[in-house]
Design goal:
The chain contains 16 helices and 29 strands. By secondary structure, it is of the alpha+beta class. Helix 1 crosses helix 4 and helix 5 packs parallel to helix 8. It starts with a helix and ends with a strand.
């Protein structure tokens, strides 16, 4: 949730009472259930059988809340609590003792460097700590930073862990004026390499999880702000990486400004972090994706110059709406950037790290600003928790499986046993319509292999045609999954589903399908669950198969029509299929798809008197005038 003044003070008061709650919107593993220590804080405590709680306790972001509360209220209890608790941690936590292993990971050390120093800097705006206390804090930080310099390997080079620990080292070097030492030079060199290999050219972090992508971005922003605050030029690679990630956030941002729950991500508002990107870089287009004025949260995170300049920045609205992040396989189809706009996110890329889920060919759908089809979230990292596995699997994503076999397989919270190779994606975007496609080889090694492709056609503003194409021989069964937002109700009809929220959508199929719905749970924030519904469609076909799913706010007439060659020979449905959709009294469209290369002499198709060559496209029939559009040849 967004941190307001009221919530900040309430949380700070709880901390003063040795009661811990992790309720910051960018907490990697939130926990809104308070845990109170009656006496001395047990820094290695693991409540709820979730070691992530101990990790959160030992990152100490909440101490920055104490400093902010102190500056807002001048109440000395917040200062006294910080001094008491940091002394407790330093006096009781033995980092080389196995009993404190959950306090001693390098990711926590890096974050502690940032959070301790940020807390000190905030308090020191109005208070001077005693020399003995400062020396004690310095000695502890130096011990941890010496470990961060020493413990660095291939895992940390590629993982978000390494970015966090290197940014911690840089923060330490800035605060203690060690800019001519290894505490500064080494992490900067490491960080440059990490920015090259961790961030794809389209700005997406390779782990394919926005929650952790933005933890990396938060730390890079922290480092950039340190450079600006010390009147030093931000290294170009840091600025460019912030710009790339900032724009990938802007691309993925839903009409309600939240990130999709891709991989291990929560339903989190992106505007504050995009605001900080814009402020640091003085970027007018990024400001369009952020807040018009600096928000309460960002005021504490930015340097004075960035805050002062932000209000002077113009807001530049992009000329485009839909965005392709092709390197990562993420595509965002829109009719506008308005809060009541329509939005579809389609993903067909690498699974990334253990934070990745079985979401190949998944799509989210938002209509008039209201979420209808969503990713189901993550819930927990506790080993052995069945809901964790459920939420990672294929059926918790809006994708399709073959012969009731999952194309991804997971072991425990983090293990990836099997994941398919994605196929190259194709896309075409313009003001009137968008098209995107992708596939995977998850069923290539079955006794009777199947290549699964999905193609999505979006006729703006509010018609979507989803084409599921299966290249194979013999007979197979297919099952589509559609996971609904918890606020959406569903009604099954004959080959049709009515989705009802504040708005209404109809889903219809080109062929007869068996429809079912099941109760399920979704997780919009770590440690929380809400009841929702999963829709399933079942069908079977011989040989190559094509299944069209039409989604629209209107109860449109959808009919399958014959496909013929130019010489009028009838084409089998295992080769090509077409549907006619009546949009209005004066307009119809025909969408068609072909699954094979035609080796015979007659390679043209004929639909409604239109002769053409191509595999995928549509014919727009408007007041009797027919216009042909081909997406794939």
């Amino acid at each position: 949730m967004d941190m307001t003044r009221e919530l900040l003070l309430k949380t700070a008061d709880m901390i003063c009472n040795n009661t811990f709650i992790f309720n910051h919107k960018w907490d990697m593993e939130a926990c809104n259930t308070p845990v109170k220590f009656e006496n001395e804080i047990q820094w290695n405590k693991i409540p709820f059988e979730d070691e992530e709680w101990a990790f959160m306790l030992n990152r100490h972001k909440y101490w920055t809340f104490l400093a902010k509360a102190y500056l807002l209220t001048k109440d000395k209890k917040y200062l006294d609590t910080f001094i008491r608790q940091i002394n407790s941690w330093i006096d009781n936590v033995e980092l080389d003792n196995p009993e404190f292993k959950d306090c001693a990971r390098t990711i926590e050390m890096g974050l502690r460097c940032i959070n301790w120093i940020k807390t000190l800097e905030l308090f020191e705006r109005e208070y001077s700590f005693e020399k003995e206390f400062k020396e004690k804090v310095y000695n502890s930080l130096k011990e941890q930073c010496d470990t961060l310099l020493k413990v660095y390997d291939d895992f940390r080079t590629l993982s978000n862990w390494g970015v966090l620990q290197n940014c911690g080292l840089i923060t330490f070097a800035f605060y203690y004026n060690k800019l001519d030492t290894d505490y500064f030079a080494v992490p900067l060199k490491r960080l440059e390499h990490q920015c090259k290999i961790q961030i794809l050219p389209d700005g997406v972090h390779w782990e394919q999880s926005p929650m952790y992508q933005n933890e990396v971005l938060n730390c890079l922003l922290e480092t950039a702000v340190q450079f600006k605050a010390h009147n030093m030029e931000i290294p170009e690679y840091i600025k460019e990486t912030i710009r790339k990630i900032g724009f990938s956030n802007f691309a993925m941002k839903k009409p309600n400004h939240h990130q999709p729950m891709q991989g291990d991500s929560d339903d989190t508002d992106l505007r504050d972090i995009i605001t900080r990107c814009s402020a640091v870089l003085e970027d007018e287009e990024l400001k369009f994706g952020g807040f018009e004025e600096i928000d309460f949260e960002s005021v504490w995170e930015l340097d004075k110059k960035s805050i002062e300049n932000y209000s002077k920045l113009q807001i530049k609205k992009p000329e485009y709406t839909s965005i392709a992040l092709q390197n990562s396989g993420n595509f965002y189809l829109r009719d506008s950037f308005d809060e009541d706009g329509n939005y579809l996110w389609f993903t067909c890329g690498s699974i990334g790290s253990g934070h990745g889920h079985g979401d190949m060919l998944h799509f989210d759908l938002t209509y008039k600003g209201e979420d209808f089809l969503i990713d189901s979230g993550r819930y927990t990292y506790v080993e052995g928790n069945q809901t964790r596995i459920e939420l990672k699997n294929n059926y918790s994503h809006n994708t399709v499986i073959v012969d009731n076999k999952l194309f991804s397989e997971f072991k425990g919270s983090w293990g990836i046993v099997k994941t398919p190779l994605p196929l190259n994606s194709l896309y075409s975007f313009n003001k009137e319509f968008d098209y995107v496609e992708g596939g995977h080889l998850g069923y290539l090694y079955q006794p009777n292999p199947v290549v699964s492709n999905r193609k999505i056609f979006y006729l703006k503003p509010d018609l979507w045609v989803v084409t599921d194409e299966f290249l194979t021989t013999g007979k197979h069964s297919y099952k589509q999954f559609f996971n609904l937002d918890d606020k959406i109700e569903s009604e099954l009809r004959d080959n049709c589903v009515l989705l009802k929220g504040k708005n209404t959508l109809y889903m219809k199929w080109s062929d007869s399908v068996k429809l079912n719905k099941k109760e399920m749970e979704i997780s919009k924030e770590y440690n929380t669950l809400e009841k929702s519904t999963r829709l399933e469609s079942e069908s079977s076909f011989e040989e190559n198969a094509i299944l069209f799913t039409v989604i629209s706010p209107k109860d449109l007439k959808v009919e399958k029509i014959e496909v013929r060659r130019g010489n009028l020979d009838l084409v089998g449905e295992d080769e090509a299929k077409a549907i006619k959709i009546k949009i209005s009294e004066n307009r119809e469209i025909i969408f068609f798809n072909s699954t094979r290369e035609v080796a015979a002499q007659k390679k043209t198709y004929l639909l409604e008197g239109v002769l053409f060559y191509g595999k995928t496209g549509f014919i727009d029939i408007n007041n009797g005038e027919k216009t042909l559009h081909i997406f794939k040849y």
